[in-house]
Amino acid sequence: MAWLEAREFYEQLQGPSLRPLVFLLGEEPYLIEQAMKQVEIQKVDDSMRDFNFTQYSASDAQIDKVRDNIETLPSFAHQRVIFLKDVHELKDSDWEILEPLIANPVESTLLVMTASRFDKRKKVFKLLSENAVCVEFKKLYDNQIPSWISYMCQQQGLQISDEANHLLHRNVGSHLLEIEGEITKLQSYISPRLRIEEADVKAVVSKAREENVFQWTEAVASRDRVKALESLATLLDQGQNEVGVVSMMARHVRLLMKIKKGQQLGYNGSRLAQFVQVSPYFLANYIKQSSLWTHTQLENLILTLNETDLALKTSPVSAPLWLENMVLKMTHPKA
Asked: Cα separation of 173 and 171, whole Å?
């Protein structure tokens, strides 16, 4: 069975011939939740919901009981529907119980499995790829987020100005579930109005991402050592994962490298923003930061980040010390 694009999956979902095993993979929980919601709408009869619809979380489910439920005939319906969420948390012994049902799906049960990640070397991944309707919801690029914000507002009967849209993106980031939560807050704040303006976002939405993640990456990229150390301390105080901090910075440095590459190819304006996969709203700031570094210097920053990442995972030395040392090296005038 080939892997499907989301659009193809939704088309199959509306038809009568959907296979009885579905595997939804992706790092963005909002997209997974939306797909599950559509399965529920299309395939669960409300009048028989209590008899034919069950949800399990893999972290606390008893897999032998899940298997028994999958093999149980539906009540007064063509199929029962079972969601088994976060299957990346299943043990090998759990998969051994489920493998026969993956190799030969039960026609009378629509089993939907979800995972945010998966080891594609496992035997069960090959079985899923061969026997399930498989859909991978890939992580969205930054420049795709504004259109999703507009769509999510429309779903709640709202409109949003361009300025408010970009500010919401900057403050909250690219996690759609978090964005959806902030839109819900904004809806309550502006009621009975239906249009979200920039001032509304400033009044309601937390600035944690803007004040922390952006300050951290921009301070390092701007060679502002004092501000970089202060921002690092704030991130760690708020419980940010140390490896995640390194990952944020690596992404930012690669973005600056891509800016340079795009400029070498003669791109500018919206064409450069499209090449780099960022919103044009943020492009000028990225160009300014990129101009402070040569390509070789940016490559050296990546080496420093890789070294720190390895040390965080293997060294007994305190993680904050490694991160502080990393900042000192990266913001050195001769970095």
From this structure: 6
